[in-house]
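BUG-137 | component: ligand-complex export | severity: low

The export step for adenosine monophosphate jobs runs without errors, but we want the raw record kept on the ticket for reference. Input record follows.
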Amino acid sequence: MKDPACIFCKIANGDIPSKKIYEDEEFVAILDLAPATKGHTLVIPKEHYPDLFAMDEQTASAAMLRARRVAGLLKEKLSPDGMNMTQNNGEVAGQTVLHYHIHLIPRYLSDPEHINWKPAPAEPEVLQSVFSEITGG
Ligand code: AMP
Ligand code: ZN
């Protein structure tokens, strides 16, 4: 179902312009308007799903397959030194467009981005408590 107020629905539908670098029946991939690095791309399903939790498993795996395909295209054409793949769900997680999308962010040894978190070891009892909360074990 398309949401007429959604900017990515409009892009997928061709109603507003974008730099589409990939398209098939179900997905498009466009250059991000405010790229973190050269080649920052968004993989977007044409159907409107607000986030990961709204997607069925088949569409979620189809999205990952497209992300891999488009990542390969970026790697081939731009020769980055690495690539981040990230996907935000909810405002607190940084989601600003409420239509599911996967970010592909090519990384270069020379780029100044800091997309990864700083690891800090957790206390064993904290890890155990989270483990129990999730698994009941
Ligand atoms: P997120 O914060 O994960 O929801 O990501 C939304 C992304 O969409 C941001 O990186 C924006 O720069 C990008 N964006 C928003 N509007 C457009 C647009 N019209 N064309 C291309 N990228 C867009
Ligand atoms: Zn939408």
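Assignee comment: Attached the raw record above. The longest helix spans residues 57-78.
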